[in-house]
Amino acid sequence: MRVLLRVLAPLLGLAVAVIGVLVLLEVVAAWVRPDGTEGLVVPWHDWYATLGRVAWHDAPVPGIAIGVAVLGLLLVLVGLLARRHDLAVDGPAPEITVTTSPRVLARLVGRRVRSADDVAAASVTASRRRVSVAAQAWSDAGPDLGDSVRARVEGLLDEVPLHRRPRVTVTVQDRKGPR
Asked: Which parts pass through the membrane (predicted)?
């Protein structure tokens, strides 16, 4: 959703800027030529005459109103769903709020897991509720690698004062090739 918001924000900003430039051009043109009956770029007088003949109950007006309302609700929904999902950390004092991103927690866990000699590679994803570790073991690693990786992750989570402790899931795959 954040990617969609990053695309929509400049497009909507550009549309508002173009409309502002058009209004500025038309106002300056009307100020310079007060007796002009045509707009400089946009045919405002024709649009005004057409809109003067359209009533609120005519066919296109309710459809356009519903379409604009649905578009507005979709934009509000995109804005609400695009918020950051930070992890709450217990601060040094109750009146201090401390947060961290799931990406930072995933990097911390990944460094801790990759620092072990029996782990060839590891991929970590983190959220408020779960930390998932996919570790690749060297072919000569013992069968208890999953337990040792879980113990490393649990030890790190003990060190980080998270307000709510996420669940830990660990999967281990054998890696073929030279060490």
From this structure: 61-82
pLDDT tens for each residue of the chain, 179 residues long: 778 888 888 999 999 999 999 999 988 988 888 887 788 888 888 888 888 998 988 888 999 999 999 999 998 988 888 777 888 888 888 888 888 999 999 999 999 999 988 888 999 999 989 999 999 987 666 678 889 999 999 999 999 989 899 999 999 988 766 55
Domains assigned to the chain? 2-81 (no CATH), 98-175 (3.30.70.1350)
pTM listed for this prediction: 0.59
Measured CA to CA, the distance from residue 134 to residue 173 in angstroms comes to 8
| Contact in structure between 150 and 131 (CB atoms under 8 Å) | no
Phi and psi angles of residue 85, each rounded to the nearest 5 degrees, phi first = -105, 80
Which runs of consecutive H residues, i.e. helices, occur in 43-144? 44-53, 60-81, 102-114
167-175/130-138 β-pairing: parallel
